[in-house]
Amino acid sequence: MSNPALERTAIFRTEASPEIGGGHLIRCLSLADGLSNEGWKCVFATTEKTPDTVPALNDSGHTIQILRDPAEDEPTDIARKWGDGYVFLIVDHYRRDEKFEKACRSWADGILVIDDLANRGHDCDLLLDQTLGRVRDDYTPRVNRECRMLLGPDYALLREQFPAARKEVLSRRMKAGAVRRILISLGATDPEDVNSLVLQGVARSGVDAAVDVVMGSQSPNLAKVKKIAEGMPQKVRVLTDVSDMAALMASANISVGAAGVSTWERCCLGLPSIVIIRAESQRLQGHFVKKNGLAMVLGWTHEVSGEDISSAVTLLVENSDRRQEIGKAASAACDGRGVERTVREIDKLVRPKVLRVG
């Protein structure tokens, strides 16, 4: 009979919905896959909306625990089912803070918090913020003294498909050629309907290139985007619930995206990009992406017009030197090995405790 003390379970408290999008869930899935490869059982403690918003969770092979309301009962709800063995908690949720984390200390043998706001306190052993420009002083007054911080794009949580494709894709990008394909990816749900604005800008540019638009099947604006795509002068594909984003990015010559999680996917593959800041959590990263020349950052959603999109797309299509410049800077900023590094940090924390109780 196996010793339950040696059975390692990672509990992910995160979620996705049409309102908040799927970024938190996607980066947690990346880390879960990395932990699973090292023998961990991974459980997603989440809401009913999450699997529908990001179907990749259903296909991941990881366990899903649908939580009950109210939120105050979550620590007990989770522990009731997963309190045995060695349990490690990963929290990626803007509405959870040190109060929730302290309540989980009775059963969680270790806690990792994933954050990118630095606006609330945490009680954790590891804190990961992959935002470019983030520094320790942003969190020092907000975390316990023993917390180890994992900061910057070295810890960007990307799916294995990205570092796996990196070498071949970067080699191909060194040979400057014409822009044949444009990728538009602005989040799984896009409640603000930025995709429509971008498509209108691309149409206005008149560039001769195929266009791929990536959305979630639960996006409230999916039908509208498909209708706009049908009237475009370019050939447009609207793709939903894509499982291999690395392949789409590898085939694209330029991209239009947000300043969030997907920033590091594009950087890993050296994809020259036009970036729109869509949320407060993207503000700092957008600033440093622009400052370091990793993309053309147009500003906040409400500041960007169809004409801005058209001009930026035209510039990148017509200026191969600028594409090369952005692509090289972007690829130097992120190698895509953040999951690997994070798993190592978790192992450093966990291994002595597992050996001691085993």
Word description of this protein:
By secondary structure, the protein is an alpha/beta fold. The protein has 2 domains: 4-158 and 336-357, 3-Layer(aba) Sandwich (Rossmann fold), CATH 3.40.50; 161-333, Rossmann fold, CATH 3.40.50. 40% of the residues lie in helices and 18% in strands. The protein is built from 14 helices and 13 strands. The protein has helices at 23-37, 49-53, 56-59, 74-82, 98-104, 161-173, 194-205, 222-230, 245-251, 262-268, 283-291, 306-318, 320-333, 338-357, and strands spanning 8-13, 41-46, 63-66, 86-91, 110-114, 126-129, 148-151, 181-185, 210-215, 236-240, 254-258, 273-277, 296-300. The strands form 2 sheets. Strands 3-2-1-4-5-6-7 form a 7-stranded parallel β-sheet, with helices on one face. The protein is globular, with a radius of gyration of 21 Å.
Number of helices: 14
Q: How would you classify the quaternary structure?
A: single chain
Rg is 21 Å
Largest sheet: spatial strand order: 3-2-1-4-5-6-7
CATH topology of the largest domain: Rossmann fold
Structural class: alpha/beta
What portion of residues is helical?
40-55%
Average pLDDT, all residues: 94
CATH architecture of the largest domain: 3-Layer(aba) Sandwich
Determine the N-to-C terminus distance: 13 Å
What key phrases describe this protein's structure?
7-stranded parallel β-sheet; 358 residues; alpha/beta; Rossmann fold; 14 helices; 2 domains
